[in-house]
Amino acid sequence: VTTHSATVSWTVPTIAFTPETYVVHYGTNVYKLHSTSDPITGLSNFTARSHRFLITLTALTPNTVYFYRINATNSIGSVLSQTANFTTALYKVPTPDVSVATADDNRIYAGSSLILICTISLDQ
């Protein structure tokens, strides 16, 4: 989970009837999960072990609780997972590095100009 994205993962047991299509429904209101991920489709024959899927949700708002559930659909029908949640990371405003350029002898005199140089890194 970052400030603007989160990766949702789940495991499908080998007993699942395949192929299945999976979509993640998500939103900030647990009762209105209107946003959806792009669908992904499982393999037509899984190996003997369970299969893990990942979907990354993007364009999220920082420091926000999101709710999600997974919808699995195959030729028999659809089923929804239980609802879960995550919180995106808090966006931290960077602290600027400030340096001061002064008069020739490094003293600031009344009425003199001051030049502030700031460097801000916007790492997210």
The secondary-structure element order is: EEEEEEEEEE
DSSP strand tally: 10
Q: For this entry, what is the oligomeric state of its chains?
A: single chain
Q: Assign the structural class, choosing from mainly alpha, mainly beta, alpha/beta, alpha+beta, or little secondary structure.
A: mainly beta
How far apart the termini lie comes to 11 Å
Helix content: under 10%
Main sheet overview? 6 strands, antiparallel
Low-confidence stretches: none
Number of helical segments? 0
Strand content: 35-45%
Shape: elongated
Q: Over all CA atoms, what is the radius of gyration?
A: 25 Å
Mean pLDDT: 77
Can you offer a commentary on this structure?
Helices cover 0% and strands 41% of the residues. The model has no long low-confidence stretch (mean pLDDT 77). Strands 2, 3, 4, 6, 7 and 8 form a six-stranded antiparallel β-sheet that branches. Strands 1-5 form a two-stranded antiparallel sheet. The protein is mainly beta. The chain contains no helices and ten strands. The protein has strands at 6-12, 21-27, 35-36, 40-41, 51-57, 65-73, 78-80, 84-87, 97-101, 115-119.
